[in-house]
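Below is a concrete protein record.
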Amino acid sequence: MPIRLVIADDHLLVREGVRRLLETDPDIEVAAVCDDLDSLLAAVEAERPDVVVTDIRMPPGNSDEGIQAAERLRTSHPDVGVVVLSQYATPSYALALLEGGSAGRSYLLKERIKDPGELASAIRAVVNGGSVIDPKVVEALVAEDARGEGSPLKSLTARERDVLSEMAAGKSNAAIGESLFLAERSVEKVIHAIFLKLGLTWEPSVNKRVKAVILYLAESD
């Protein structure tokens, strides 16, 4: 069975561009496209999709409707994943999206999606209860948190910060190693050091690691 989607964005060109991009994937079916919060919620009720791909700002308020939709769906349709496509690398938006947990929630920057596979990969991740956070957003979260007095993030080395960003973006040890030109065993040692410095319990599961790091940043914000 294909993954069924509802797409929401108030800009016609963006909305249609995302739809056409995703329709090239044989495992994805676009069930509906919407241009505001009300039509998005109505489409979820009518189509029962697996995932919602939404912009942050839409009518009626053009503020944080995508985040509002994600919050409502946690209660009304907890099995529906949400991928937020945003032009804003704003920590407050990411933290609001993940406030109730990172499972089934992803936050990507529109400008950094370079091929259909990146978006499709995030969609598959949320379907499976995972999470993908754009590394640029994670960097903003880390930078904001590190300004606090006594933040353990200040004790992280440059290499540990790089690995932290890659890890919070949902990458496996192998993928982190490939990105940073490190042996997988070296990545594992760095992650151990990060978790020790941040007071987090070691967790080999990628999804749980993402949740641990994001929740740490959220609680320290």
In short: The beta strands are 3-8, 28-34, 51-54, 81-86, 105-109. The longest helix spans residues 184-198.
